[in-house]
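Two entries, shown back to back:
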Amino acid sequence: MLEKLFKLKENQSNLKQEVIAGITTFLTMAYIIFVNPMMLADAGMDQGAVFVATCLAAAVGCLVMGLVANYPIALAPGMGLNAFFTYTVVGEMGYSWETALGAVFMSGICFLILSLVKIREWIVNSIPMSLRLGIAAGIGLFLAFIGLKAAGIVVASPATLVTMGDITSFPAVMAALGFFLIIAMVQRGLKASVILSIFIVTALGLAFGDVTYNGIVSMPPSVAPTFMKMDLSSVLEISMISVIFAFLFVDLFDTSGTLVAVAQRGGFLDEKGRLPRVKRALSADSLATIAGASLGTSTTTSYIESTAGVSAGGRTGLTAVVVGILFILALFFAPLAGMVPAYATSGALFYVAILMMSGLVNVEWEDLTEAAPVVIVCLLMPLTFSIANAIGFGFISYAVIKVLTGRFKDLNLGIVFIAALFLVKFIYG
């Protein structure tokens, strides 16, 4: 049965190799089951229900990717998109989390349609590489800022907007320790470095009396507080178009970039550099987002951590299925997830920020018409505390700079349309 489903021999793999790869991938991305519920709880959502939704959405995404697309690519609620959900859509814009879930659901529907009718390639190809790199790096800075804020290392100031907090406080010291542990373990080749760091810092919090012991294993909490709670009626408002677009836009490029990166690492690209069964892979991602919104979590997307499993020998969808099963088993560790303090995940956020900013090395810094929009996106994303607004300013600045410098050939219909859309939004609110 496994041979028929996953073609193990054809892909030069076996059951043991795929299981080891699945465990490796899970350990590198399991931090999301602690970080995501904590982040969405800031939006007013029930943390226990979001924990269940996170595990189930990840399981659904992994199982569909493995069984339908037959790729060793794991999925889970995406970092950055959960921050946008909580701190921009709910926090800054003032929408309810039910409306935000509705926007995630609609973005999943749009993503599915784009994947099926092959418009995705046109959209991806129409957006300049510099803006893609800038958006990824900007989200990284946004996550780093959230991590510093959660640890109390950066605090509000009436004089300078932000300033340094008490870096000798227990949360600040533990957050810094967690970050240093991650870097040290990653450098030494430990696959589970992020989740191990979270466990170590949580254990220290427990030892120093800052964390209350609630147990390790129990039956999963109820998902009822968030299940099917998305508000689709409010999504039809004109002001929500940019929100849906931002969810869709970030997921689109995040998924596309991850698929290419994992495919290159695993040697899955054909002789023309294309990914076979790409429509199935994209459909799996969009279906996972739809399922995740229905359960009660932000956008579910493909994880670059899948490259760890591919490096460990993962070659087929069986790797993704193993990851999905492990996420289902994780449902029974809700008490452990509930004990994890915010500062234990701050180091993970900062580490993810480093990964997301690494792409800046590929920006054409000598070309100011390409570099300037990148800097604008990177700076405005954390400083305006808004992913959507930063993306909008990035597109507008790119178009304006190219026009003023006479570089009309660098513009295309996609860039002009998106820039105009955001310009109308900023003018008319």
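entry 2 starts here
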Amino acid sequence: MTLRTAVLTRLDYLDSLARDADEPSKAVLADTVIARLTAAWRELLAAHEPDHRGRCRACASRWALRRAECSVWRTAHRHLVTDPARQSVTRGGSVGRHQLRSA
């Protein structure tokens, strides 16, 4: 099993537990997994810290003259900070602006 496959399989497993498990199992899941996920996010974000010019050291080309926003930080913001109800509108998801107004 490749590293990628192992990670995606684990994410699928955690999704299924969060969706289908009974309440006591979800509580155990929260107690054991949330700290690991926040640690993983912190480690990933540390690898993408901006340099003194505000450019991501992992993503930006050293030849790039303009400040490029890091996709990892944008993704973290979208999933950890932004209201999930508004995500489909801001990302152009399956619910469009005109559908929200008429609902």
